[in-house]
Protein backbone atom coordinates (compact mmCIF):
# COMPACT_ATOMS: atom_id res chain seq x y z
CA UNK A 1 0.00 0.00 0.00
CA UNK A 2 1.10 3.60 -0.43
CA UNK A 3 2.52 5.69 2.39
CA UNK A 4 2.09 9.31 3.49
CA UNK A 5 5.27 10.59 1.83
CA UNK A 6 4.21 9.06 -1.48
CA UNK A 7 0.84 10.78 -1.27
CA UNK A 8 2.42 14.17 -0.50
CA UNK A 9 5.02 13.72 -3.24
CA UNK A 10 2.52 12.57 -5.83
CA UNK A 11 0.19 15.46 -5.07
CA UNK A 12 3.08 17.91 -5.37
CA UNK A 13 4.24 16.40 -8.67
CA UNK A 14 0.79 16.73 -10.19
CA UNK A 15 0.19 20.21 -8.78
CA UNK A 16 -3.04 19.09 -7.14
CA UNK A 17 -4.31 20.91 -4.08
CA UNK A 18 -5.71 18.93 -1.16
CA UNK A 19 -9.16 20.07 -2.25
CA UNK A 20 -8.61 18.82 -5.80
CA UNK A 21 -7.35 15.45 -4.57
CA UNK A 22 -10.32 15.21 -2.22
CA UNK A 23 -12.72 15.85 -5.11
CA UNK A 24 -10.91 13.40 -7.42
CA UNK A 25 -10.91 10.66 -4.79
CA UNK A 26 -14.39 11.33 -3.42
CA UNK A 27 -13.03 11.86 0.09
CA UNK A 28 -13.28 14.80 2.50
CA UNK A 29 -10.27 17.12 2.77
CA UNK A 30 -9.69 16.13 6.41
CA UNK A 31 -9.18 12.50 5.34
CA UNK A 32 -6.60 13.64 2.76
CA UNK A 33 -4.81 15.61 5.48
CA UNK A 34 -4.83 12.57 7.79
CA UNK A 35 -3.46 10.31 5.06
CA UNK A 36 -0.69 12.81 4.27
CA UNK A 37 0.32 12.91 7.95
CA UNK A 38 0.23 9.16 8.52
CA UNK A 39 -0.99 6.93 5.70
CA UNK A 40 -0.82 3.88 7.99
CA UNK A 41 -3.72 5.32 10.01
CA UNK A 42 -5.98 5.51 6.98
CA UNK A 43 -8.70 3.13 5.98
CA UNK A 44 -7.59 0.82 3.15
CA UNK A 45 -10.52 1.99 1.01
CA UNK A 46 -9.43 5.64 1.44
CA UNK A 47 -5.85 4.79 0.50
CA UNK A 48 -7.06 2.97 -2.60
CA UNK A 49 -9.27 5.92 -3.61
CA UNK A 50 -6.34 8.34 -3.25
CA UNK A 51 -4.00 5.99 -5.12
CA UNK A 52 -6.45 5.62 -8.02
CA UNK A 53 -7.05 9.38 -8.19
CA UNK A 54 -3.31 10.11 -8.30
CA UNK A 55 -2.66 7.35 -10.85
CA UNK A 56 -5.39 8.86 -13.03
CA UNK A 57 -3.51 12.17 -12.74
CA UNK A 58 -0.39 10.51 -14.17
CA UNK A 59 1.52 9.16 -11.16
CA UNK A 60 3.27 5.81 -10.88
CA UNK A 61 3.86 4.46 -7.39
CA UNK A 62 7.12 2.61 -6.85
CA UNK A 63 7.27 0.00 -4.10
CA UNK A 64 10.23 -0.31 -1.76
CA UNK A 65 13.09 -2.28 -3.25
CA UNK A 66 11.91 -2.13 -6.87
CA UNK A 67 14.81 -0.05 -8.13
CA UNK A 68 18.23 -0.72 -6.65
CA UNK A 69 18.38 0.76 -3.19
CA UNK A 70 15.88 3.07 -1.67
CA UNK A 71 12.41 2.99 -0.36
CA UNK A 72 9.01 3.58 -1.86
CA UNK A 73 8.64 6.49 -4.25
CA UNK A 74 6.64 8.14 -7.00
CA UNK A 75 7.26 9.31 -10.52
CA UNK A 76 5.22 10.66 -13.38
CA UNK A 77 4.15 8.36 -16.19
CA UNK A 78 5.83 8.86 -19.53
CA UNK A 79 3.52 10.69 -21.87
CA UNK A 80 3.26 9.35 -25.37
CA UNK A 81 3.92 12.00 -27.97
CA UNK A 82 4.57 14.66 -25.38
CA UNK A 83 6.03 17.97 -26.44
CA UNK A 84 9.69 17.84 -25.48
CA UNK A 85 10.15 21.53 -26.15
CA UNK A 86 13.02 23.00 -28.09
CA UNK A 87 16.37 21.27 -27.98
CA UNK A 88 19.20 23.51 -26.69
CA UNK A 89 21.02 23.53 -30.02
CA UNK A 90 17.89 24.94 -31.68
CA UNK A 91 17.35 27.81 -29.25
CA UNK A 92 17.64 31.30 -30.73
CA UNK A 93 16.11 34.73 -30.34
CA UNK A 94 13.35 33.89 -32.85
CA UNK A 95 11.89 31.17 -30.62
CA UNK A 96 12.56 32.84 -27.26
CA UNK A 97 9.14 33.14 -25.64
- The CATH topology corresponds to 434 Repressor (Amino-terminal Domain)
How many β-strands, per DSSP? Answer: 2
Overall radius of gyration: 17 Å
- How much of the sequence lies in strands comes to 5-15%
Strand order of the largest sheet: 1-2
Please state the structural category: mainly alpha
How many strands, what sense, and barrel or not for the largest sheet? 2 strands, antiparallel
Query: How many structurally independent domains?
Result: 1
Q: How many helices in DSSP terms? A: 4
CATH architecture: Orthogonal Bundle
| C-alpha termini separation | 43 Å
Order of helices and strands: HHHHEE
The average pLDDT value, as a whole number, equals 85
Runs with pLDDT <50, length 5+? none
> In CATH's first tier, which class applies?
Mainly Alpha
Outline the structure in words:
By secondary structure, the chain is mainly alpha-helical. The chain has a single domain (4-76), classed as Orthogonal Bundle (434 Repressor (Amino-terminal Domain)). 42% of the residues lie in helices and 8% in strands. The chain has four helices and two strands; from the N terminus they run ααααββ. The protein has helices spanning 4-14, 18-25, 29-37, 44-56; strands spanning 59-62, 73-76. The chain has a two-stranded antiparallel sheet with strand order 1-2. The chain is elongated and about 55 Å long. The mean pLDDT is 85.
